[in-house]
Design goal:
Number of helices: 6
CATH class: Mainly Alpha
CATH topology: Arc Repressor Mutant, subunit A
Number of strands: 3
Shape: elongated
Distance between the termini: 14 Å
Largest sheet: 3 strands, antiparallel
Strand order of the largest sheet: 1-3-2
Strand content: 5-15%
CATH superfamily: Winged helix-like DNA-binding domain superfamily/Winged helix DNA-binding domain
Radius of gyration: 16 Å
Number of domains: 1
Structural class: alpha+beta
CATH architecture: Orthogonal Bundle
């Protein structure tokens, strides 16, 4: 994952409501959650939920799929794993001054 992509992901997750939404989607698993059910579970107004989910979609952390009238939202596990990999890259190798420049 590129640094700018990681920055965008962290920016999207840097809001309490979006973090709550994302954690709920991760817990839901690969099948995802219909937006109406997500709204019921989190108690977030529909327009607010939509606004925050779109921020997560733009960051690439979440995908949505429409089937008829149902809009299902899913966490993108590959993106989540990429973010974790970005954070743990070169873990425990020791800090070298030359590494700070890259």
């Amino acid at each position: 994952m590129k640094e700018q992509t990681a920055v965008e992901c962290f920016a999207a997750l840097g809001h309490a409501t979006r973090l709550q939404i994302y954690r709920a989607l991760v817990q839901a698993g690969a099948e995802g959650v219909p937006m109406g059910s997500l709204q019921d579970v989190l108690g977030v107004p529909a327009s607010t939920l939509s606004h925050h989910v779109q921020a997560l979609v733009r960051a690439g952390l979440v995908h949505q799929e429409r089937a008829g009238r149902v809009l299902t939202t899913r966490a993108d596990y590959a993106a989540m794993n990429g973010l974790v990999d970005f954070l743990t890259d070169k873990c425990c190798d020791g800090l070298h001054v030359k590494d700070l420049a890259s």
